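BUG: 3D viewer hangs when loading the predicted structure for this chain

Environment: internal workstation, default settings.
Expected: structure renders.
Actual: progress bar stalls at 90%.

Input used:
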Amino acid sequence: MALKPTLVGACIGAAVTGGVAWLWSWVFRRTPSTDGEVEDRVLFFPAVGQAPCQSVLRATQCRRLNCTHGHSPDHPLAVLLDALRETQHTLDIAIYTFSYMFIKEEVLAAQRRGAHVRVLVDLEQVSAGGCAVAELFKAGILVRQGPEDFYLHHKFAIIDGKTLVNGSLNWSRAGVMGNHENVLISSRPHLVNAFQEEFDRMWEMFDPSKR
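Structure tokens produced before the viewer hung:
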């Protein structure tokens, strides 16, 4: 597969191993805040360099000899999964496309830990190939579908009413591995509260008993 160089202020090279080119472009940034201990994390997808080892994504120890995958905990996908892994009490998700296996695993794990999980998803995407929503519903997670005439195009999650995960990223393999996307993780109360209010409003709006 031929790769064309892209110039975005600076040139990022592609690492080619065994005839397979991994072209990721990743930036992991921590933004200082004036709000005391509040810290924002800005993630860009896809990442550049080695594809992440599954052990990093699952927060386990890699047991492969001469593993050629990346093991940095600062990989943007690892950071996103770590944020979801911190869920203790509540996890509210409003998402357009939800099919990525590793994110699905963390949502199911939060529910098994006793967290109250609610998912709002686009109506059309529920029937899309690989959609994780049916498995979430089967596991006992509360799921509601968006409107019939327009898209539910949000991509955000609220963890324990204290942490916001928001951006352009669809929770799909294409979103993580291919598309150029962004995610902001923030614990700024005014942002978290605004998204929580909107989620609660939509949750009531899309109550199937009221349609």
